[in-house]
Amino acid sequence: MSTRGWLVLDLAVKAALLLLLGLALAFPDAGGFEGKGMTSRIVGYPVAILIVPAVWWLAFRRSPYPYAADVLFTLPFLIDTAGNALDLYDTVDWWDDANHLVNWAILVAGFGTLIVRLPIGRLNAAALALGFGAVTHILWELVEYFAFIRDNPDEFDTAYTDTLGDLALSLTGSAIGALLTGTLLQRLRRG
User: Fold this and answer.
1) Ramachandran category for residue 27: left, alpha or beta (phi over 0 → left; psi -120 to 50 → alpha)
2) Which of the listed residues 65, 73, 115, 171 has the most CB atoms within 10 Å of its CB?
3) Structure pTM?
4) What is the spatial distance between Cα 184 and Cα 191, in angstroms, rounded to a whole number?
């Protein structure tokens, strides 16, 4: 894809996310937004999607902009917010599980597109990617707890089991992203 194509895709993904977050802000009691810690998402997601541009600007702006990493890093936030907007978390039994698996595979692959640029071997790149996935998911579960589980008695009965399942699925997604980092992304870097 051309640089212009990547730029358009990157901006479109970010705009879609911001539009959905705006809907959550305007209609907080709408089906899929209510009780889902949307305030944390409305504040945190725009900050999160600025991480790749900020790091690039501060440390790597002499190198080409990492559009693929930026798109891949933004997609999980968009998928999550779209799932809330469409009320999929409460209407599709497997939606939350699929999100943990797929979103962490995407997120870790995005991180992988950055670390394969470093002069490290495949195993080290895969290990760093897996560690990134594990740490980010633990942080996610902590934020989720404080955002909407801690003060929601309806969540108490299932929160522990759900969190363990989420950790297992996200770790599996992280392993998939790490495998991609150590194999396919390394080959693409060489090519």
Assistant:
1) beta
2) 73
3) 0.88
4) 10
Copy the structure tokens of residue 190.
């060489």
Is residue 7 within 8 A of residue 67, CB to CB? The reply is yes
Of the candidates 142, 131, 143, the one whose C-alpha atom is nearest the C-alpha of residue 104 is 131
Q: Determine phi and psi for 36, rounding to 5 degrees.
A: -110, 20
pLDDT of the chain along its 191 residues, tens only? Answer: 889 999 999 999 999 999 999 999 999 988 788 877 788 899 999 999 999 999 999 988 899 999 999 999 999 999 999 999 999 998 999 999 999 999 999 999 999 999 888 888 889 999 999 999 999 999 988 888 887 677 777 776 777 787 888 889 999 999 999 999 888 766 666 65
Which tokens sit at 37? Answer: 């810690």
Cα–Cα nearest to 112, from 74, 68, 77: 68
Pairwise CA distance, residues 122 & 112, whole Å: 11
Neighbours of 186 (CB within 10 A): 20
Tokens of 48: 């999160």
Which among 160, 113, 161, 105 has a CA at the least distance from the CA of 133? 105
Phi, psi of 145 (to 5 degrees): -60, -50
Cα of first residue to Cα of last residue in the chain, in angstroms, is 15
d(CA 108, CA 135): 11
